[in-house]
Amino acid sequence: MNIGIESISFFTSRYVLDLRTMAKARGVDAEKYVNGIGQEKMSVPPPGEDVITLAANAGHQALESIDTDSIEMVMFATESATDQSKAGGIYVHNLLKLKPHCRVFELKQACYSGTAGLLLARDMIHQYPDRKVLILMSDIARYGLNSAGEITQGAGAIAMVISSQPKIMTIEPESGYYTEDVMDFWRPNYRDEALVDGKYSVRVYLKALTESWNLYHQRTHIGFEQFSRFCYHLPFSRMAEKAHKHLAKINHIDLSEHELATHINDGLVYNRNIGNIYTGSLYLSLISMLENNPQDMSNHKVSLFSYGSGCVGELFAGQVLPGYRNHLSSDLHQSLLESRKELTYPEYTDFYNFAYVQDGTTQSMPTFDTGCYRLSQIKNHKRIYETL
Ligand code: COA
Questions:
Q1: Residues near ligand 1 (Cβ within 6 A)
Q2: Atom 12, ligand 1: which residue's CA is nearest?
Q3: Residues 162-171 pLDDT 10s
Q4: How far apart are CA 156 and CA 53, in angstroms?
Q5: Atom of ligand 1 nearest to the CA of 150
Q6: Which of 186, 206, 252, 354 is 20 to 30 A from 347 in CA distance terms?
Q7: In the chain, what is the greatest distance between 2 CA atoms, to the nearest angstrom?
Q8: Atom 17, ligand 1: residue with shortest CA distance
Q9: What is the pTM of this model?
Q10: How far is CA 272 from its chain centroid?
Q11: Share of the chain above pLDDT 70, in %
Q12: Is 61 within 8 Å of 287 (Cβ atoms)?
């Protein structure tokens, strides 16, 4: 039985900051951001947009050609949750008008948890092939103003339908994974901004990649050369280059610059222009690879490496299905990116500094473009959403 991705889409904020604008404001050489880090633009969420509205927009797009009554489970993966108790997926379940006989819950492990959801969904469908799972991965990356991580911020959501009628990619059953208790990136409950030891996180990422690959290879005997493309979790797009050179090295492969570009570059396009969307980052790279690759990728094998600080890594494989292009939302995604409103630097800091009430007073949100859904009010400590 084939199990995998039947439908996949992303949504990102309708506002964007060009990192050259940030570089000018900070007196930094823009080449550092564009080439050194590999980021050109970052999506910035306006007041009234949160992980719920981002996920609802992505979910709405991914469910366009799906019978919503077939969705038996919604997993909501995030590390920027709006509530310590209630799963964000329940608001989205309501906004998307899904049936009540549906299991909804939230997953957390930094940028990795969506992958846990995907692979658990795969196992569930193996047992119940007529059921479908909606996986939402939604995050707003937020570091301190002027911190090293600030220019890697981003905001966006991925929605995927996993089923036994995949149209885009099958997900193979075997994987290699690795866990180690480290403090490379974390966000205590009392903070809005993440704390990160950036250089250390890159080292731990590479260690988790080595360990995950070794277990994957030991279990499957599948080699580096059997993959056509490699997608990586991308906290910033140059991470793919570091990761891929590392993977080639541990496999004793002398990678040419041309091979490096072929293996990873199409998967960087969207991430370079959106920023880090945490849980969805690997899958944004997958969509980018599928939608920006001029070559027909049918039947090609793709390596997917997921990493969540703290840390968990997992490497697994997908096989692209013939006819996949007919089921992508390439035009929608392109126009979503091209129609974003460019922010000035003061507009960016205004959005960044917008304060949500924390004391139960009623707060009505100013109106900005947030797609089909918005957070309209916070009242009596309750978030109130509306469909536009
Ligand atoms: N032109 C071109 N490249 C330049 C440059 C310039 N003017 N100035 C610097 N660079 C290059 C550096 O040589 C370096 O390249 P390298 O990685 O190949 O060594 C790169 O730009 C970054 O410069 P650096 O000074 O090391 O950056 P930084 O101290 O600002 O930190 C990160 C970079 C990525 C560590 C930081 O942005 C960060 O912490 N990001 C968040 C990481 C994260 O999210 N991790 C958690 C999940 S994995």
A1: 29, 31-32, 35-37, 148-149, 152, 185, 196, 198-199, 201, 205, 235-236, 307, 309
A2: 36
A3: 999 999 999 9
A4: 10
A5: 37
A6: 186
A7: 61
A8: 36
A9: 0.98
A10: 13
A11: 100
A12: no
